Amino acid sequence: xxxxxxxPGSFDPVTNGHLDIIRRSREVFPRLxxxxxxxxxxxxxxxxxxxxxxxxRLLADDDHxxxxxxxxxxxxxxxxxxxxxxxxxxxxxxxFEYEFQMAMMNRHLADQIKTMFMxxxxxxxxxxxxxxxxxxxxxxxVTGMVPVEVEEQLREHFTGQKE
Length: 163
Ligand code: COA
Description:
Elements: E1 4-9, H1 16-28, E2 31-37, H2 48-58, E3 65-70, H3 74-80, E4 83-89, H4 93-109, E5 114-118, H5 129-137, H6 148-159
Parallel strand pairs: 1-2, 1-4, 2-3, 4-5
The chain binds coenzyme A.
């Protein structure tokens, strides 16, 4: 199978759950595009450039992964990049309704683009980027839930200090 897939998201910040989905996707697809959304309705903590840069660093050892940032319709970007599958992670049943709606709408917009759901390792099913930011801000530990590079990014954001 030489199908390329695209994994879109806000990645604000990327978590080990996202990285787990990326690893699993690469076991299935020979080429993966990780697409960082620019203008999310959610207010981002990190700039799109910072989010993409950290993903690029974390995924640098895999030549078959490309990190891009995007604006506008996901299906358009997928078509432009010749990716016919959209990957989304399903952590729990609560994700399903929103994901199902997006998958159906994307199918309506571009019938040839399929959505594939991946389930992360159970250790990551309760993770979300908002929770990571909240826990860190309130002094809790996020070790093991995000890569060390993200911990450093969070430290810098909240204290202005590099280690
Ligand atoms: N591990 C940890 N967290 C995960 C996760 C995983 N495996 N999978 C999802 N999440 C979390 C994210 O951290 C995020 O948490 P947060 O809400 O606390 O920030 C949440 O689940 C969902 O975020 P994400 O996966 O980044 O999706 P999103 O809802 O921010 O963005 C897009 C979804 C980018 C796919 C969608 O908005 C899009 O396609 N936009 C482009 C415009 C478009 O085409 N619109 C029409 C769509 S039908």
